[in-house]
Amino acid sequence: MGTQTVAELVRRQWGDHRTGLRDEHTTLTHHQVASGAAARAALLTELMPHRPGREPHLGLLLDNTPEYPLWLGAAALAGAAVAGINPTRRGAELARDIRHTDCRILVTQRAHLPLLDGLPLPGLRVLVTDTDAYRDLLAPYGTATPDDTFLRPARPDSRLLLAFTSGSTGAPKAAVCSQGRLAAAGASLVSHFGIREDDTHYVCMPMFHGNAVIADWAPALAAGAGIALRARFSASRFLPDVRRFGATYFTYVGRAVQYLLATPATPHDRDHRLRLGFGTEAGAVDAARFEARFGARLVEGYGSSEGGAAIRRTPGTPAGAVGRAAPGDDLAVLDPATLRECPPARFSPSGVLLNADEAVGELVNRGRSSFEGYWRNPEAEAARLRDGVYWTGDLFYRDAEGFLYFAGRTDDRLRVDSENLAAAMIENILARWERAAGVAVYAVPDPVSGDRVMAAVAMRDGAGFDPRAFADFLAAQADLGTKMPPTYVRVVPELPLTATNKIHRVALRRTALATADPVWWRPAPAAPYEFLTPAARARLREEYARQGRPFPGDGPPG
C-alpha cells in the first residue's frame, strides 16, 4: 500500500466524511478522528516539550473509549510513544509499569483514578478524559490539523508503542513497536484477509494489548475501514453490538470465544454481517462450534508484540496445528542444548505424539525478524536475539509437512485469558499468607485454551487449609491482579525440590489434578473455594475430553 508510517494513515483520514469511529455514545467521521488526533497532538506538544534526556512517552490507562484510538493517532502525528497501561495491575506493580516506560503524561478516566491512589509517581501529569477540566484543556487546540508541526517528525523508525509482555523474570517487558512496523502489520492483514474500506472492525479486546491495536485497529486504519468500540468485552453485548455497528471483523482470545458460546442460542445468531474473527487460543473444537452457530470463520494465528515470529493458519492446516511460518520467516524448532533442528513429529493413528522427547524444541526465527527490542532491558534483548536468531521462548514441534504445533513454554510463565503472568510474582504474594510454609505456582492447561493458575501450598505446623480464610487473604492483597488468583490449590506435606534445592515444578505439573493430595478449586473466578471431589474431578475430565485436550496430570508436563 506504500504507506510507511501510522502518521500518514492518520493524515489520510482528513477530508473523509464517512463514519470512522463509534461506540455506544459517540459517532465520529474519519475526518473528525484525524481532527481529534491533531488536537491532542497539539496539546501533547504544549504539555510535553522537548527536553534533553526526557522521552516523549505517555501512558494510556483507559478502557476502549474513543479517547484511546484518538491518543494513538495523536502520538503518531507528534512523533511520541504510547505505553498501554493494564488496569488489572495493582499497587507497586502498576506504578512500576508507568515509571519503567518513562511516562511523562498519563491519560486516564475517572473509573481508574482509585488505582493511582498513594502510588509514588513524582512529576507525572495526569489527564482525566471524562471531566470538564480535560475538555477545557483540549478546547483551544480544536483548529489543529494533521499537517501542523508537532514534537518531532514521524519516521518509519519512530517509536510508537511500548507494549508490555511478561517474561520469566517476573517484571513485564515493554516491547518496542515503531510506526513503520505497525503500519506494515496493518497492511499485511489488509492483504491477507481482503479487508475493504466498507468493513467495520469491532474492537472488543482491551487496547492495552497488542491483539487489539496491531491486529484490529491497525488494519482498519490501513484499509480506511470503520472502527466500533466496546469499552470492555461483554459476551451478552457482542451480537447486539455486531448488528448495531454492522461489524464484519473482530479479534479475540480463546476465553472470549468460550464466553460467547456459553450465551443462550437463538434463531437469530446468524443475523449479522460478521464474516471473520482473527485471534489466538480458541481451540479447534470451539472454533468449529463458533462457525457452526454464528456463521463466521475464526482464523488462528501465532505472533507476539515483539514481532519476532509469526505463524498463520492456512487451508489444509491439520487439527491441533497452529499453521505454517508467515511469508519471509525461516522458522525452525531447535534443541536449545545442541542448537540442532529437532526431527519431525511422529503420531499414532489416533493422533498421539509418539516422539515428544526428540521432536519438541524451542521455536526460533532464523530469517528476517521485525523484533525491535525491549525498552531499557538489554538483558532481555540479548536472551531473545542470539547470533542473529530470534528465540521465541515457546516450545513447538513440527510435522513432516512443516505444520507447527504449540507445546508449551520454556520458562515458568502462565497464560491466563491471553495474559502472560509470571509464577514468581504470584508466589511472592501468596507467600505472605501466614498459614503457608511454602508456595509454588505453576500452569495447568485450561479445558479450552491457555492456562489456569495452580498453587501447591505446604502448611505451617498445626495450620490446616481453610478455604474461606485463603479467599479472604487473596481479596486483601492490593497488588494481586485479577488474573492471578489460583483456580486450584493443592495442599502438600512439603514442596518437591530438585537436586539444587529449587522447587520441582515439573513434578508438580506432571501430576497436576491427578494428584492424590487434596485439591481445592474455584469452579468460577468469583466462587468460593470448594473441595475437588471425585465427582467434580470426573466432570472436569469429561470437559477436557470434549475439548480434545489431555486432563492435567494425564499428559506430558507443560
**Beta-strand percentage?**
15-25%
User: What oligomerization state is this entry in?
Assistant: single chain
Rg estimate, integer Å = 24 Å
Largest β-sheet summary: 9 strands, mixed
List low-pLDDT spans. Answer: none
Average pLDDT score: 91
Please, how many helices? 16
**Order of strands across the biggest sheet?**
2-1-10-9-11-12-13-14-15
Helix content: 25-40%
Account of the protein in words:
Helices cover 29% and strands 23% of the residues. By secondary structure, it is of the alpha/beta class. The model has no long low-confidence stretch (mean pLDDT 91).
Produce the secondary structure layout.
Elements: H1 6-11, E1 19-22, E2 27-29, H2 30-47, E3 57-61, H3 67-78, E4 81-84, H4 91-100, E5 105-108, E6 125-128, H5 132-138, E7 159-165, E8 173-178, H6 179-193, E9 200-203, H7 210-223, E10 226-229, H8 235-245, E11 249-253, H9 254-261, E12 276-280, H10 284-294, E13 297-302, E14 311-312, E15 324-325, E16 331-334, H11 356-359, E17 361-365, H12 378-384, E18 385-386, E19 389-398, E20 404-409, E21 413-416, E22 419-422, H13 423-430, E23 436-445, E24 451-459, H14 467-475, E25 488-492, H15 505-511, E26 519-521, E27 530-531, H16 534-547
Parallel strand pairs: 1-10, 3-4, 3-5, 4-7, 5-6, 9-10, 9-11, 11-12, 12-13, 24-25
Antiparallel strand pairs: 1-2, 7-8, 13-14, 14-15, 16-17, 17-19, 18-19, 19-20, 21-22, 23-24, 25-26, 26-27
